[in-house]
Amino acid sequence: MLKAFTEPFRYPRPASAQQPGARGGRKPAAKAKNWSGTLQRVWHYLARRKFKLALVLLMVLLSSGLALLGPYLVGVAIDHYLEGGLNRTWIWFLAGLAVVYALYSLTVWLQNIWMIEVAQETVYRMRLDLFAHLHRLPIPFFGKRQQGEIMSRLTNDIENVSSTLNSSAIQIFSSVLTLAGTVIVMLSLSPVLTLLTFTVVPLMALGMRWITRRTGPLFKERQRRLGELNGFIEETLSGQRIVKAFSQEQRVIGEFSTRNDSIRLAGFWAQTISGFIPKLMNGLNNLSFAIVAGFGGILAIRGSITVGVIIIFVEYARQFTRPLNDLANQWNTLLSAIAGAERVFEVLDENEEAGDEGASASLDRLEGEVCFRNVSFSYEEDGNTLTEITFTAHPGETIALVGPTGAGKTTLIQLLSRFYNPSSGIITMDGRDITTIRRESLRSHMAFVLQDTFLFAGTIRENIRYGRLNATDEEVETAAKLANAHSFIMRLPDGYDKKLETGGSGISQGQKQLLAIARAMLADPAILILDEATSSIDTVTEVKIQEGLNRLMKGRTSFVIAHRLNTIHRADRILVLKDGRLLEQGSHEELLTKDGFYASLVK
Ligand SMILES: Nc1ncnc2c1ncn2[C@@H]1O[C@H](COP(=O)(O)OP(=O)(O)OP(=O)(O)O)[C@@H](O)[C@H]1O
Where is the ABC transmembrane type-1 domain (predicted)? Predict the structure, then answer.
């Protein structure tokens, strides 16, 4: 029972937090840049549950105190037995000991569940804040970073913080307390025996340092290679069609095998070397046990200490090496959690979509007049993607954007929807500078039908309703009818309730386009942005799409990135872009007469 009592309590770690191979919680310590700042911000989250946290701390204090009291009472009980034999007082001692054990278990259990509650609430908030913040970040942020990398902050890094808060944080705190308490009680009982017990500490520290210095870089290397392997898996799975189309399966499997093997090797050495830690600790523990027993025995024979004190020291010697071991184990976990929290805060510190601070106006109505006045823009510091663009689109007009690849057609649309702000010049809608209008309000008057229509996992009905969330079922169906999507939807097994998988696999390219048109129809915008599909669609569907689009564009100012000659033909105005400059503008006939760049493109 004594052993069970003094056995260090291990907080259960969620399976996902266990690093395969990082035995004993020894994970690579990614370096945190600003310790105190990060801890303060984590504290800010934790402080939401101050009362619970205070209870946890109280329980940690109590359990640490009880952990010290147990062995002490055992020693005293033994001395008492040696002196007075089996009597009433001795029975009371045993009963007291049982109460101490029970209270210890209770306090540990309470601190554990309360801390889990606080930790889960903390990471729930952090996750929510991060996700909401990601949705307020400007588009360039997503261009600069890999999707997988952002995802890993939302999942791995937050999980790292979560598991550390769940377990390591209080384990470290209670280890420090137990260690301090043990040393104080040991010193008060026998300073000589305390010093003798401590002779193994420098050996432990040196041994641990020697081992962790070698395993740290190995675990880190293993994590790095694992990260690279994840990237490789993600890439090959999402590019599966290309892998198969070019018969690259064997090469891909070969490369995977090489990468996999390098992880195996790094993991093998990291674990083999770190496997010495428990052996070393055990050996040194036994040594300190022998020292206490041997020298304690001599001291007892001389009468300077009692047998009970030797028993207490034996237990304490065991007890103080454990917190040391725990501290060493948890340290790396703590460091990597701080680094994880830092990565989360790094994203939280990213500026939200710029420019909305001064944009307080909202648009109740929009006629749809769009003006570009000397608009220039560049993605990079230097260079110009668009230069001095000036044109006016009157309400209800269809504007076709044409030009060779890389001319700046998409960029012009990005500026119009305020995904980016112009470097110079001004864009107005109904005469108002669009930088003064809140983005949300501005975009509520716009709808997009893009080449790569994104359909979410959900039913067809839900996907169309994305255009206007409060639309009724009837409105959804009316929009689908106007978009020419109704007939194909009705032919599907579950009609409007057919479930689509992410990306809309299961329906054809043309059908996706029809759904996108229905979605835009439902949004009923004043301004429409169309990116005409370049992929060939069968003639029947093509006609349906065209009909749907014609109905959609009626009465709205439409910008079409046009690829088909008949779309361009029908446009009220054509903007001809080349190398970021607006070379020509006018109707098809006007531009042909001009016999410039457009005429040469048509020819
Ligand atoms: N996020 C970005 N960061 C840096 N440069 C970019 C970015 N997006 C586009 N560019 C560059 O800006 C220029 C204009 O690109 P844009 O996509 O507007 O051309 P486009 O006319 O739409 O071409 P396409 O018809 O091929 O789609 C190109 O030179 C392109 O390389």
Answer: 54-336
